[in-house]
Write a structure and sequence with these properties.
Blueprint (H helix, E strand, L loop, with lengths): L2 H26 L2 E4 L3 E3 L2 E9 L2 H22 L7 H8 L5 E2 L2 H16 L9 H13 L5 H10 L5 E4 L4 E4 L12 H15 L4 E6 L2 E6 L8 E6 L6 E7 L3 E6 L4 E4 L2 E4 L13 E8 L2 H24 L5 E6 L6 E3 L10
Antiparallel strand pairs: 1-3, 2-3, 3-7, 4-6, 5-6, 7-8, 8-11, 9-10, 11-14, 12-13, 14-15, 15-16
Helix pairs in contact: 2-7, 4-8, 7-8
The protein binds adenosine-5'-diphosphate and magnesium ion.
Length: about 350
């Protein structure tokens, strides 16, 4: 090798080495910023952002929280000033133009209603109101009240027009309730905000519904997530997720007891009764909105129909626990792929 060439070669080698060292030192200086628990959407949220720049990690957490706050303000049906409440109050009399976020969720909700044969249904509002009254008074609704509520429930009576981004109800007294899907959507928006603003990795957890992406604090791109057994102080399993989401529905956090019978907050739209065959349903899916809506759907569909639905969907898996004593843990056929050995 000629002398000049050798010098060039050595210079290139040095550059390569320095580049590698720079990359390693950057990696070693990754910052893990955590929001701590924040009360929002009727539960607690926790956000983690990973970056090599502390200011970026901090900004990503703030932007993720802003996204969740925005969804809470838009979709909370208990707040009469929310966009959802205003829609509920006026959409029978006239077509109502809604925000792109609300329209996106309503369109997705309709798709999950069709997919689940009506087990998931955001027009469940009138039945949820009966459940809430029962929660306050301790008295179950009369069969006439149940009939009236059931009559007003039905996703096909919610008319969505994608061109005008408008919503209209076919019947007076209809009421949308996004409790089974809005949390998932908020998580997806929060993740999007972090990605767009430069986070190298992150996790958003709202009340146990979780999505993660990119670098994890410990294990490359694998985020470790424990699934809690609702009846015991131990974990069902540990999941390892990479750019994925998991959501859990069940009767263990929100329920009331009437005449000694537990009544969970997930209702079968066809009967207005609480879904009771499964006590815990965790769905693993690419987005948190899919996981959230499907967890609610499977809760209503029960073990057979619910697991059949999950088997029919690509990239989506389920872990469910049956209510019968002794309870069983059932998994869809590809679920073990996401479990830590
Ligand atoms: P959690 O809020 O505990 O995560 P879910 O995601 O399953 O549980 O949401 C339950 C909420 O969804 C209920 O509180 C109610 O607001 C609403 N809901 C109840 N039953 C249904 C249903 N069949 N379809 C759609 N939403 C429902
Ligand atoms: Mg849900």
């Amino acid at each position: 090798m000629k002398k000049d060439l050798r010098i060039l070669f050595q210079a290139l080698l040095l550059c390569g080495l320095l580049g590698t060292l720079f990359f390693i030192s950057r990696r070693n200086r990754l910052v893990v910023e955590n929001s701590g628990f924040r009360p929002i959407m009727g539960t607690l949220a926790q956000i983690t952002a990973i970056s090599d720049d502390p200011a970026c990690a901090h900004r990503c957490i703030e932007l993720a929280l802003d996204a969740i706050e925005m969804i809470q303000q838009t979709m909370n049906d208990r707040d009469e000033n929310s966009e959802l409440s205003k829609l509920n109050a006026t959409a029978f009399e006239q077509e109502v133009k809604v925000s792109p976020e609300l329209f996106t969720v309503l369109q997705a909700a309709k798709e999950y209603s069709i997919l689940s044969g009506g087990a998931f249904d955001v027009t469940i509002g009138p039945e949820v109101q009966l459940w809430r009254t029962m929660q306050q008074t301790g008295t179950p609704p009369t069969s006439e009240q149940i009939e009236q509520a059931r009559f007003r429930v039905g996703y096909e009576k919610m008319i969505l027009n994608p061109e005008t981004q408008t919503v209209q109800f076919e019947l007076a007294g209809m009421r949308l309730d996004l409790g089974g899907i809005a949390k998932g959507y908020a998580i997806d928006l929060a993740i999007e905000a972090m990605k767009q603003n430069g986070a190298m990795g992150g996790m958003v957890d709202i009340g146990g519904d979780i999505r993660c992406f990119g670098h994890s604090p410990t294990r490359g791109n694998n985020w470790l997530i424990g699934l809690q057994n609702p009846r015991k102080e131990k974990l069902i399993t540990k999941l390892k997720l990479t750019d994925y989401a998991v959501a859990t529905s069940g009767d263990y956090r929100r329920f009331i007891e009437i005449n000694g019978k537990k009544q969970g907050h997930i209702l079968n739209p066809a009967t207005a009764d609480s879904a009771e065959e499964l006590i815990s349903i965790s769905i693993v899916a690419p987005t948190a909105m899919q996981a959230d809506a499907l967890a609610t759907a499977v809760a209503v569909m029960g073990r057979q129909r619910g697991l059949d639905l999950i088997e029919s969907l690509d990239g989506i898996e389920a872990f469910v626990i049956t209510a019968k004593n002794p309870s069983e843990l059932l998994r869809s056929s590809g679920a073990s792929f996401y479990q830590l050995p």
